[in-house]
Amino acid sequence: MPPTVLRVALPLPHPGLFDYLPQSPSDLLDAVGARVSVPFRSRELVGVVVEVGAAESAPDRLRTIVQRIDAAPLLTGELFDSLRRAARYYHAPLGELLATALPALLRAGEPLPSTQAFTWQLTEQGRTERDRLRAGGRPRQLADCLLAGAVSEPMLADHMPEWRSAARALLSRGLVERIESRARAGATSPQRGPRLHDEQQRAADAIVHALGSFQPFLLDGVTGSGKTEVYLSAIQACLQRGQQALVLVPEIGLTPQMLRRFRERLSVGVDGVEVHSLHSGLGDGARAKVWASMLRGEARVLVGTRSAVFCPLPQAGLIVVDEEHDGSFKQQDGVRYSARDLALLRGQALGVPVVLGSATPALESLAAVAANRYQHLRLTHRAGGAVAPAVRVVDVRRQALQSGLSTELLAAIGNCLARGEQALIFRNRRGYAPVLLCHDCGYSAQCAHCDAPMTVHARGRRLICHHCGSQTYTPKACPDCGSLALQPQGVGTERLEEALASAFPNVPCIRVDRETTRRRDALDGMLQQLGSGPGILVGTQMLAKGHDLPGLSLVGVVGVDEGLHSADFRAGERLAQLLIQVSGRAGRATRPGTVVLQTHHPQHPLLLTLVGGGYAAFAAVELAEREAASFPPYAHLALLRAEAIDEVPLREFLQAARDAATACLRAAGVELNGPLPAPMLRRAGRIRWQLLLSASRRPALHALLNEWLPQIYALKSAKKVRWSLDVDPLDLY
Question: Structure pTM?
Fold first, then answer.
């Protein structure tokens, strides 16, 4: 009789499970979902038990686990089932997806951390001696943070990433004390917020009415219409039922502002709840602790970025996905999942409403509304009586531009500042200039590892590739002809900042892009530095998302044209969303707003449709064109990507993969496109090719993938390349 074994999913690019013998019979009890440490070749790996059953291999070939890590299963119930469903949908190795779902410490085999809650407060001595601490130092910053009263450790982590060293220093001097606090896990009394207008109230009522059952909602509200207040109203109702709420936001930059608003409403008073956060800016220990708090039902509200979708929700009540259209919800390496789509999958499994909110919904979401799969909730006007900004299209053909800025836009900025208001100049290209060019011979600085130009940074002193990250100093003379006529061409955010600071030297000019916001709290600090007086923000799409800037009355958009002529079929949608989102930053309070769009193509159909009818008109036209062309959401895609140092193994692998797919095709067909070189053939020193699969029916695509993938794993040529499968790809590059 074969022995009973543990079937373990390991974090490997392999679709199967691995059989291991238990150390003792007790290891088999309640083992599914528990982590185990196992020997694998010459190393030790941490995996998750997926099944317990009879061995299929000869007993003498089986190895024994090193140890069972969890006395009770860590992954159970809905979360474990949803992860297995997601692995099947994305055709990803289960072990890789389970590892992706766990925080790094748990993935490494560390025990589930304690979630005992603590707060910190100043002692009487600390209040007396606070002024003696060095101004600007971390101990003084921490003491100032505690001046108003006790603060929880998660809130300290959000405000001061390096707070622990300062706390230890103050604790050793008797200036602060650490106090255990009880987790507040029961039902709460709602705190009063602003009065909802009629559309907000109808939307909130619909969501609250659906609590306790699965119902997807698309909360389609113009910028400034008060979607966050609808979320908060529904979350308060959820908390009154003693349930948990998960809120997903697209980027870490949005997290601090969202956390503040949620804490002002939900964490106040005796009945308030702690609002937790989960994002890449937290340390491994803090992330594991939040995950454990959610697992134990102690954390009631979690605001997080993409990976927060994997948190346990044992008392789930509501899931919210803010800015649901945003591409950052799609993981672009490893297991290529969509957090928005997984939120819907989990909401269905948990039987709770899922609210997708956006001023510019993804076309897939609008198609789901048209098919009656989502309930459509509309907010058509701005909250508080604010009006939509006026939009002006400026034709810059035959105009002399100053660092990319037209005379009309510069005049509008000057008038805005003279009124004591703020301006945002948007350019979705960071750096000083997109390319370095020799005016004598036409040489341009190209990346040595990618088929892409190097971007000029640091006012022309450095060249950086935005695709692989390689850097070099700018040459003093042209490498091809020796000329000194090397000049940065085009405009990036650095160059705009330099030009605007020179043109308007008496007001703050603050640049917001990836370079200036590397620290977790950098963006929050910049917005505080801007204050409420006149000033200029220069930035990339980081400024287009969700920020409430009451002093902002002017938005200028530089470089619209690049998105008007892209080969990517999603480019128009992305540009329209970006323009609407960034335009929505203007005039959100009592000041009327103005948007200036600079373009060399003022009669382009996309611009005419957006200016004349808004995003809804654009979406209607674009959806009709997508349907006629059989593009998503009226087709379902999967992209097989492969890369290698040389092109020969790529061609061999992808041709063999295509031959295998052709053999799997049935009458209800799937179209094969390729193998073809990727639009950017070479990236980070590797050649890239791809094979695109398209089907009008999702079941037909997945039926082929189920039959095809095992054959790909078996190909000898698959071992000579790096390959990956992307189901529902957002980026075909």
Answer: 0.88
